[in-house]
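[Q] Does anyone have a clean structure-token version of this?
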Amino acid sequence: MQTRLVESYRDTPTGRDADAILRSCVHCGFCNATCPTYQLLGDELDGPRGRIYLIKQILEGDAPSHKTQLHLDRCLTCRACETTCPSGVQYHRLLDIGRELTERQGLRTWREKLLRKIYNLMLPYPSRFAPVLSLMRAFRWVLPAYMRMNIPARNNAGAWPVSRHPRRMIILEGCVQAVTHPDINCATARLMDRVGITMIRHRQAGCCGAVSYHLTELQDAVKQIRRNIDAWWPDVEQGVEAIVITSSACAAMVKDYGHIMRDDPGYADKARRVSELTRDIVEVLDDEDLSKLRFALPVKRVASHVPCSLQHGQQLPEAMDRILMKCGMELTDVPDSHLCCGAAGTYSMLQPGLSQSLLTDKLSALESGKPQCIVTANIGCLIQLQGKSDIPVRHWAELLESGIVD
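[A] Here you go.
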């Protein structure tokens, strides 16, 4: 694709990145074939190719409009288009650039700004989110239907295993997951204990930064990234084996720290090292010998929802399913398994209509094989699916741990 970036962008780091991405696109349109919003809306501007043109226009000097922002907002950042793209276009990086440049224009209504500000000030901080969630549970009957669906039941974390193994890995504490489903990390720590790995918690670490980053609150995202790096760095220097993350969207974000912080002189090298050490929990357990564990799983037949952040973002489409089958589970067929469930971080709250349409289609596909349980690997997908599914939905690692017998 030919570009003519205006001088104000041409020789900047942002402009150079955008120009390289734009030039790699041959506008073939293969991306539209796997784009969930294009399939729903049938509008060229609600597919990756159309959004690329919108961003190109901004970089070439056209002022973005409300319409521009609408089409960029509608993108789930599921990255299915990147899996499909024959040219390797890094669409999500270009989208981040386009959203940031559009946000600078101040086009949003005061209601949109307020809602996004509330989410940014609440969701990444467990100490703020926990009391708000308690209030939402108490007064759920007054909330809109799409919000009621996203209020999970209380979950008991269970016991954290005693540290006893020479193999040590850090586990991300997180934000929303730490409040709504603390059982996931605790179950993962017990599972890792069974294979001879000690999980290290750092309470001073927290949100990976994805919520703020995708709300275009970039300064807050950078603060959260620096905080996590500072919390983990002493263990990194002492040779910790990995930084393990149980929510696939968070894993994709932390693996991107090196890119996000590349121009920060104080953190660029550290961020790159943290990204190199980061592993999704599926990567860790896929490499471990689980044959020494005995399972009496509460369910046998499961439908696997591989999150977009795992199959497209991290390019790990088969690892979770491979582990489940090795542990004795039967996986049902899921049509169109590449498509998003509509969670996508705050998308389910900011774009509830599109999100619910995608969720309906996804649940129809997941339930078509008559599973006893649905499993997934991302907290956003888990909450989204639990809110509407008649079939139990669990994090895959938590389900596995619950079936271990001595």
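[Q] Thanks! Anything notable?
[A] The chain is about 50% helix and 10% strand.
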